[in-house]
Amino acid sequence: MVRAAAVAERAGLPSVSIVSTAFLEQAAVVARGLGLPGLPLAEYPGVPMTDGPEALRAKVAALADEVVAGLAGTVGAPTAPAAAEPGPRDIVFRGSLDDVQEFFHRQLWSDGLPIVPPTIARVERFLAHVPDRAPDEVVGVLRPDTRAATVWSIAVNGVMAGCRPEFMPVLVAIVEALADPEFRVQDAGSTPGWEPLVIVSGPVARALDFHHGQGVMRVGRRANTSVGRFVRLYLRNVAGLRIPPGAGDKGSIAATFHVALAEDEAAARALGWPTFGEEQGFGPGESGVTVQSVVSASPPIYTAGTRAREHLEVLAEVFGQACAYWSFTGMKYGRWEPLLVLGPAVARVIAADGWSKDDVRRYLWEHATIPAGRAERYAWHLGSTAFSLAAQVAAGALPAAYAASPDPERPVRVFLRPEAIGLVVAGDPGRNQSRGYVSNHIQGGRVSRRVRVSLADARPPRGAFASEPPLTAARRGGSAARGSSDAVDQA
Amino acid sequence: MYEVVWPLAPRAVAPGTLAPRLPSLAGRTIGELWDYLFRGEELFPLLRRALAARHPGVRFVPYDTFGSIHGRDDAELAATLPAILRAHGCDAVVVAVGA
What we know:
Oligomer: heterodimer
Number of helices of chain A: 18
Shape of chain A: flat
Strand content of chain B: 15-25%
Number of helices of chain B: 2
Low-confidence stretches of chain B: none
Largest sheet of chain A: 5 strands, mixed
Number of strands of chain B: 4
Largest interface: A-B, 101 and 66 residues
Strand content of chain A: 5-15%
Structural class of chain B: alpha/beta
Strand order of the largest sheet of chain B: 3-2-4
Helix content of chain A: 25-40%
Largest sheet of chain B: 3 strands, parallel
């Protein structure tokens, strides 16, 4: 919203943006990130969606003076120039391990957990794993704080998150995806509190010991956990999305980071199914990452039986119900990419019955429905007070079936398009469980990036748990090749 | 002893300047930009009345002229919005509702 005001201002038209009290700080962050820190705001006191008509009338009458002042008053007084910020190699703090934790916490640079101190030596060890990329290379720009996502900053936050240096090519690819305009990282501080989910595909997943089996979405494996944590740290520090006492992240209740997900690609291939990575466009032998928003998860979905339909009936019901509440967001914005993690044992039954992944998607699309009136009611409660399916159909944003009758009980499809449903085979191969993940419409749209890494120079990472000898993404030599030192790492 | 570096990254935005403000709203045309959220369909008519009572002759280009500004591609918005506002004779804009 504030972005439209900035467009008008830059075109020479004065603007004022009406913002409710709790969102003034976020609006200021966005305005600063747009280069217009003094952008006029008019405060709507309180919560518009819980005010009665009289309160609304009174508050609008009261804010009219602020609107006038914003358009015809004295605004835009010169603001103090921004304080100079540190350079990448500047030492911003010296102290013990405990001192570093306290300093980073006070600066709002940590996520509340202890961080690994980002010394120059540690950062250089990460950089050694992307020898084709300069530390000051900008892989994208992250808003709302509008900061350049440099390779150096990726390494710093990777160190802090507890990643291994050899994860660096994966981290760079993740940030490239986050910075893609399709992902809309600037909306990652919206009130639903969605969180990016990273899916790692291809040989790099095994090489770096990304887990895909039992307990895959639980913390406990270094690659999955530290990469997931890195994403949240990077959003805080470079995108500027911080909960109070920071600003910019307005997730009302929100959720914490997801560990990175890897697919049981061997299981998928054994079924004759394409892997998730292949469906995202990665060729055989190629590695990649996919990021997408997740706003909530389904319950664990247990399905039993020897025929595909026995499983799919329950999956369509439970995954469909988990997505149904949020389906109006897809209907409103025309993009929505829920994800289903299918247990390997469940996938095996479905595939053995002759069903392809596309068949599964089509079944889910055809059988998951919600009463139309309920979708519209949920939209109103969120704040989409002008939303109607009939209007969406009239505008050509939805197929005619969504307005087939005026009956509010008419069923309409939960999923917009079958091809938008992601399917990943992962989880406990010894149990018949799946789980669904609900995405947040156009915010955090599914984006993939190739991981630029050579796996030819292989050695297992220390502490790897993979059953097969893993490869490493690192070039031999690493930080030693750059002559870096751990001298200041130790107390 | 640890010597640590900064975890943020350089800003990548050129500072801009706000547009000159109007001397008065009287006789001016205000464009309404709405994100189609949070009761703007009630708020804008109320605001029109309140502003018209203070500044005779003020005119409004209703929000439905422009469609929703929510979720629009930023580059597309920047490329198209100024011309549309000018085509409708807008002197200023009110943007709502952030909540």
